[in-house]
Specification:
The structure holds three protein chains of three kinds.
Chain A (H helix, E strand, L loop, with lengths): L8 H6 L1 H35 L4 H13 L2 H12 L3 H25 L3 H10 L3 H32 L11 H9 L5 H30 L14
Chain B lengths: L3 E11 L6 E11 L3 E5 L6 H8 L7 E6 L2 E2 L5 H6 L1 E4 L11 H5 L1 H5 L4 H14 L16 H13 L5 E5 L7 H18 L2 E6 L2 H7 L2 E6 L3 E6 L1 H6 L4 H7 L3 H6 L14 E2 L5 H11 L3 E6 L2 E7 H4 L16 E2 L5 H10 L5 E4 L5 E5 L1 H8 L2
Parallel strand pairs in B: 3-8, 3-9, 6-7, 7-8, 11-12, 14-15
Antiparallel strand pairs in B: 1-2, 1-4, 4-5, 9-10, 12-13, 15-16
Chain C lengths: L11 H13 L10 H33 L3 H13 L2 H12 L8 H25 L3 H9 L4 H34 L9 H10 L2 H29 L12 H6 L16
Helix pairs in contact in C: 1-9, 2-5, 2-7, 3-5, 4-5, 5-7, 6-7, 7-9, 8-9
Classes of the chains: A mainly alpha, B alpha/beta, C mainly alpha.
């Protein structure tokens, strides 16, 4: 292996099809995990924020899920759900829960009380208050959580190569197991593409936040100024 | 005959399980078009009382009626849409433009866009808000501007009743005075029923038709027009709360235009020095005003007339301050005390001489 | 090695029963592949990188936090750390280091673990120091304390909870990376998982996964308790237990949450 190049650029062009396939798999896994994670986390977080007592057990449970090393979690799941998309997704979604719930709760807590007081006083119903005032104002913190979750998940997905998926992790695993001169290229490609995807996702999310919350960029203080 | 708009009947509020009551069997009535100010020290329950009217706080017992209907029988959300609500920190929605903020309740009520826009522009001009601000976000506005947006927002759906909790508290005194004046002007034309909470007795005196002085537990110590409270405080608590200088505070309630000014010593430039001295003696003053064709030149005293034949030859000094019909007797008193002539000179809008106010004349208004 | 292997997803109850059998089989408590040995290996594997990372990251974190400079660089380090997949890092490092002395792949895993442990420690230390109330620091300087005194007597003690949280995150991260590192030839609990998967032995896989999970959770809990114990007392004398929740909902760039920031 001594004389092999660390990275052969032509490999990328030669395998562009495969790369796109893996990209698609990686993106799919990411998007589904985040969307499902949000669908679970949002109602849970809203509930938790209202009923403070439930917070420690919820944080405790989701925290425990988060602490379990992903390979252990995937390994555990595959004994029940096999080497499938679902195994990966259940595991990935579990990792998003702590981050998302924590950030949604923090975001909701950060909404200034006098804004809520004024809104209720004017005649917003509780539901209108949540959807038209609290959630929009919590958006920056929530998006920050989505960003962290997304970047984390993108990295975790590479591990799923060990259960038959992997996205870009597929290249890492293949490279690791191969003795060809392209081993290094493949591993590096897998890792770099994964990082690139994470950076890209982060930028897209930042842009989305700017679009959804234009008020947060203006004025001396951030959105929470009164 | 004054019609009751808001009535509170033996309203009590207890928080949680504590035996202590924040508000204890409070009863009072507010007439239509009246501005009632609730004042009192911290913890007297004034804000709690106000918040029970629009059910942001639910009374533990007692009834509250607004415009004839028991508030507990109404849907709180609907109730609040019909009551304007302004709080000290205003609580503008940071994620909405100023225009959207003002139009909050109309929007919730389903007004069409054109009507909302019209109303918003109307209110902006009434509150003297630069139309360019309408597209901005609250974080870009100054404190005084935000307060005005808050008031505009409360007025948007034209509610008959307004609740205001220290609405002018968060700005500096100069801005506050302007806001108070502006609000008084608006209230003159709109004649809303207003319940106003403040801890500042001077603000209460200025803004109220009637003041309710509250003690701990929401006990009403006195509920009367400001003049009466100053003249006849019901007890020591009220006396102490109103503070010292009640006399001066009462003077602040009387305008110069409300009383008759006295004639003072007046000469013209062509008057001889001797005649001038006679006039001064007549009025028992050491000075005389110099008025030519209605125009006020200033004043001269005997020292200045020394060795002169005619008033015009002497050096006329300008009066240091004037009061007009719009000023209060308190301003007049300040003028009296600080001027060399020891009187307040009253002029009209065109700065033409009207007369003087002496210390005795002003005191007469208080001593009865 | 005991009972016959079961295939994947072959019925939950059976797998659990098999796993239980594996745990209770005394044969698995002696020899080269024994449970206690692997646990020990795993702990040893994980402890060293954490120490090394702390040695490297703590001083830098203290400096960045105290001087309040290079904050953007520190945050970037954190973000990169989060984005880099540890799997890729191990695999990539394997090639240049496979000839180095010791177990095949050890160095790759070791370097990967160290690198991945640095960001949480760095970020948390710098944020922790930076968050110390400026007035307190200023008062200390005003009293005549030297910069070292300010750092060591004021800032560090107040930043300890966050620093410990950073060590906690790093430790759990490293435990996870060590598990993954079993794709090389190193020891540790990952061996059960990787070898089990290769042999189709779900009971071993599950056993390994449970052990790793327990180890990680135990580490997390221990550090959290330590964090709580070392938390500054509030004026009422009570320790702020909710510091834990506070630090977890801290600014998004504070890596105080448990585990796998970055990856497995």
């Amino acid at each position: 292996m001594g004389g092999d190049p660390i990275f052969r650029w032509s490999w990328v062009t030669e395998n562009s099809d495969q790369i796109l396939t893996q990209l698609w798999e990686h993106v799919q896994l990411t998007v589904i995990a985040i969307v499902v994670g949000l669908l679970i986390s949002l109602p849970v977080a809203i509930y938790v924020q209202r009923h403070r007592r439930v917070l420690p057990p919820v944080v405790g449970f989701t925290g425990m899920l988060y602490t379990i090393p992903s390979i252990a979690l995937f390994a555990f799941l595959q004994a029940y759900t096999g080497l499938s998309f679902w195994t990966a997704e259940i595991g990935l979604v579990s990792y998003t829960l702590l981050i998302l719930i924590r950030n949604i709760v923090a975001g909701l807590n950060a909404v200034p009380t006098d804004v809520k007081d004024a809104a209720l006083g004017m005649g917003y119903s509780r539901r209108q208050l949540l959807w038209r005032v609290e959630l929009p104002l919590a958006l920056p913190v929530i998006v920050a959580g989505i960003r962290i979750a997304t970047v984390t998940i993108i990295g975790l997905i590479t591990v799923t190569a060990l259960i038959g998926l992997g996205g870009f992790g597929h290249f890492i695993l293949t490279g690791f197991r191969s003795f060809s001169s392209d081993a290094s290229t493949m591993m590096l490609a897998g890792g770099l593409f994964s990082v690139a995807l994470a950076v890209f996702a982060d930028v897209v999310l930042i842009g989305t936040e700017k679009l959804l919350a234009p008020w947060a960029q203006k004025g001396a203080g951030r959105a929470m100024a009164t | 005959m004054a019609q009751t708009m808001i009535s509170l009947n033996s309203v009590t509020k207890r928080f949680g399980n504590s035996a202590e009551t924040a508000v204890n069997a409070l009863s009072m009535e507010v007439n239509q078009g009246e501005t009632v100010v609730l004042v009192g020290p911290s913890g007297c329950g004034k804000t709690t009382t106000m918040k029970m009217i629009n059910r942001l706080v639910e009374p533990t017992s007692g009834t509250i009626t607004v415009d004839g209907t028991d508030v507990l029988e109404q849907d709180p959300v609907r109730l609040r849409r019909n009551i304007g609500y302004v709080i000290q920190s205003i609580g503008l929605l940071p994620h909405r433009t100023v225009a959207e903020n003002i139009g909050t309740v109309p929007h919730l009520e389903g007004w069409d866009k054109k009507r909302i826009d019209q109303r918003t522009e109307e209110l902006a001009s009434v509150l003297e808000l630069d139309p360019a601000l309408l597209k901005r976000y609250p974080s870009e506005l100054s404190g005084g501007q935000r307060q005005r947006v808050g008031v505009a927002r409360a007025l948007a759906a034209d509610p008959p009743v307004m609740l205001m909790d220290e609405p002018f508290g968060a700005v500096d005194p100069i801005v506050r005075e302007r806001l108070q004046d502006q609000f008084l002007d608006i209230q003159e034309s709109l004649k809303k029923t207003i319940v106003f909470v403040t801890h500042d007795i001077d603000e209460a005196i200025k803004m109220a038709d009637r003041i309710a002085i509250l003690n701990r537990g929401g006990i009403i110590e006195q509920y009367a027009p400001p003049e009466e409270i100053l003249r006849e405080p019901a007890n020591d608590f009220v006396k102490q709360f109103v503070g010292a200088e009640r006399g001066l505070k009462r003077l602040a309630l009387i305008n110069v235009s409300d009383i008759e000014v006295e004639e003072g010593p007046v000469v013209s430039s062509s008057t001889t020095a001797d005649d001038a001295r006679k006039i001064m003696e007549e009025f028992g003053q050491d000075w005389t005003a110099v008025v030519d064709d209605g125009e006020l030149r200033g004043w001269v005293n005997s020292a200045a007339l020394e060795g002169k034949e005619v008033v015009g030859e002497a050096e006329t000094r300008k009066f240091s301050a004037y009061v007009t019909a719009r000023n209060t007797l308190r301003n007049a008193l300040d003028s009296i005390v600080t001027s060399r002539t020891q009187v307040a000179v009253v002029v009209d809008k065109q700065e033409r001489y009207r007369g003087i106010l002496t210390l005795e004349r002003v005191s007469k208004e208080i001593i009865s | 090695m005991g009972a016959e292997g079961r295939g994947k997803g072959d019925g939950n109850v059976n797998v659990l029963a098999d796993t239980f059998a594996w745990f209770t089989d005394p044969a698995n408590y002696s020899g080269a592949n024994s449970i206690p040995l692997r646990v020990m290996e795993h702990v040893q594997l994980s402890a060293q990188p954490v120490f090394l990372a702390a040695l490297l990251a703590l001083p830098v974190g203290l400096y960045v936090g105290h001087k309040r400079r290079f904050e953007f660089a520190a945050i970037s380090v954190g973000n990169i750390g989060r984005a880099v997949p540890s799997f890729g890092l191990i695999a990539f490092l394997f090639v240049p280091t496979f000839a180095w002395p010791g177990v095949l792949g050890y160095w790759a895993v070791f370097i990967a673990m160290t690198l991945l442990a640095i960001p949480p420690i760095l970020i948390n230390t710098s944020v922790g120091i930076r968050s110390v109330d400026r007035d307190t620091v200023e008062a200390a300087r005003g009293m005549g304390m030297s910069e070292w005194d300010v750092l060591l007597r004021i800032e560090v003690p107040l930043a300890v909870p966050l620093i410990v949280a950073g060590l906690k995150t790093a430790s759990v991260q490293v435990i996870a990376t060590a598990t993954l590192g079993a794709i090389t030839s190193i020891g540790g609990l990952g061996r059960f998982i990787i070898d089990g998967m290769a042999a189709g032995r779900d009971d071993i896989v599950l056993g390994g996964a449970i052990l790793v999970a327990l180890l990680a959770i135990l580490t997390e809990v221990t550090f959290s308790l330590l964090e709580g114990v070392l938390s500054p007392r509030t004026s009422s004398g009570h320790r702020r237990w909710f510091r834990r929740t506070d630090s977890e909902s801290g600014p998004p760039d504070t890596q105080t949450g448990p585990a796998g920031l970055g990856v497995a």
